[in-house]
Design brief:
The structure holds 2 protein chains of 2 kinds. Chain A is 34% helix and 25% strand. Chain A is of the alpha/beta class. Chain A has a single domain, classed as Rossmann fold, CATH 3.40.50.360. Chain A is globular and about 45 Å long. Chain B is of the alpha/beta class. Chain B folds into 2 domains: 171 residues, Rossmann fold; 32 residues, no CATH class. Chain B has a 5-stranded parallel β-sheet with strand order 2-1-3-4-5, sandwiched between helices. In chain B, β4, α4 and β5 form a beta-alpha-beta unit. In chain B, α1 crosses α5. Classes of the chains: A alpha/beta, B alpha/beta.
Chain lengths: 185, 220
């Protein structure tokens, strides 16, 4: 049963806009239903780009060499039941800001590989991983680009031992309806 | 033929991507090709120059490692900096290398690169996918020679024919998925500890082997 939800907003634009307003509203609706919500707006966070050093895998297992805001967010993510990634579609994919954060999530998994569904995937570092929900603001993305973004998240879930519970355009669902949907998961 | 090379690896000059590109470049220049610029996207000091190199290029090679099932953040940022650019049909070639030993992991990023080419009105010459690249720095020559020769061959093909051979690209992206036999072999490797040799070697070198299963963010 879902109790704690982390919302990660990959919108590079702060302030009032359709995506940020949607997130504000879903945050309120979910809080109103008794969920514990932690919301992070990446545009206001100091998150360095992963440099591929693998310190988090072979020097300080589970910890990145950069002691920036990603540590606080990763701690919330791994101790939650669901993480909602929100992003505008920019140049046919989710934002570079969200991508930069995703690159920093590798300390959450183990470098060792195991076979899963006939493919190599990373071993768990933690006993459980949050389920995922994705919200996009489509902007000028084509249906193919949106479908591909959905497919990418369905790949990400494999290495993060997760499930994609929903993938919505913010124009195809109302915050209230989404909050109801989540409360029935 | 002139080629602008973009290395999108977060490891920059210390990357496996660079090693592959160097061999490509040797083959390309051996057959009269000219490399007009080499940009490391991790060096973000002069993004305007990098964007200008991309826009001015006669033809482009963008190479990077697969990162969390997609392009690395720096590559996505570069693409966003490019914005709504019309490439007017100029040629682009992609190289995606991954640590995973199967090409299936790079399928989605390949689709993205094809859609991106369409969006930027670029003529895509192909997406070279090479799985199993992590560790090539410590591999002996007999293990990497074939791969490096293939990179040289691709460079030669591009300089000579203006394109690369699709069959060779397809062959390099093998295995797409492990066969039943290889899955069994991998299981045997895991049982003997051989599958984790590379990681264990590095864990031990850093005195972190005993801490390899640490879960520092776990709350009680």
């Amino acid at each position: 049963m879902i109790q704690k939800i982390v919302i990660i907003n990959g919108n590079p634009l702060s302030g009032e806009n359709n995506l940020n307003n949607f997130i504000q509203e879903i945050n309120e609706k979910l809080s109103g239903k008794g969920f514990e919500i932690e919301s992070f707006s990446l545009s206001g966070k100091n998150i360095k780009q992963c440099v591929g050093c693998f310190d988090c895998w072979w020097k300080t297992p589970g910890l990145c060499r950069f002691n920036d805001d990603s540590r606080e967010i990763l701690k919330s993510v791994i101790n939650s039941n669901m993480v909602i990634y929100a992003s505008p579609m920019i140049m046919g994919m989710y934002s570079a800001l969200l991508k930069k954060f995703h690159d920093r999530t590798i300390p959450l998994v183990h470098p060792y590989i195991k076979m899963k569904g006939g493919e190599c995937h990373h071993l768990k570092r933690y006993p459980k991983y949050p389920e995922m929900g994705i919200l996009i603001e489509p902007n000028d993305a084509t249906p193919e680009e949106i479908e591909l973004t959905k497919r990418i998240f369905h790949r990400i879930k494999l290495n993060f031992h997760s499930e994609v519970r929903f993938f919505y355009s913010i124009y195809n669902i109302l915050p209230k309806k989404l909050a109801d949907e989540i409360s029935h998961i | 033929m002139k080629l602008a090379i973009f290395n999108g690896s977060p490891r920059g000059k210390g990357s496996n991507t660079r090693i592959l590109l160097e061999h490509f470049q040797i083959g390309f220049e051996n057959r009269g090709g000219e490399v007009s610029s080499i940009d490391y996207l991790i060096q973000e000091k002069y993004p305007e120059d990098q964007v200008q190199h991309f826009k001015d290029a006669e033809s482009i090679l963008l190479a990077f490692p697969l990162y969390v099932d997609s392009v690395p953040g720096i590559v996505k940022k570069f693409v966003e900096t490019l914005g709504s650019f019309n490439g007017n049909g100029k040629k682009i070639l992609f190289l995606v290398q991954s640590g995973f030993p199967e090409a299936v992991h790079s399928e989605e990023v390949k689709s993205y690169l094809l859609l991106l080419s369409k969006r930027l009105n670029l003529k895509c010459l192909g997406v070279i996918i090479k799985p199993g690249v992590e560790g090539i720095k410590i591999m002996p020559e007999w293990m990497t020679g074939k791969l490096f020769n293939k990179m040289k061959l691709f460079g030669e093909q591009l300089a000579t024919n203006g394109k690369i051979d699709e069959k060779s690209v397809k062959k390099l992206a093998c295995p797409y998925k492990f066969s039943v036999f290889k899955i069994l072999f991998f299981r045997l490797m895991r049982l003997t500890g051989m599958a984790n040799f590379y990681w264990n070697k590095n864990l031990k070198e850093h005195g972190a082997f005993e801490k390899r299963f640490d879960a520092p963010y776990l709350e009680n």
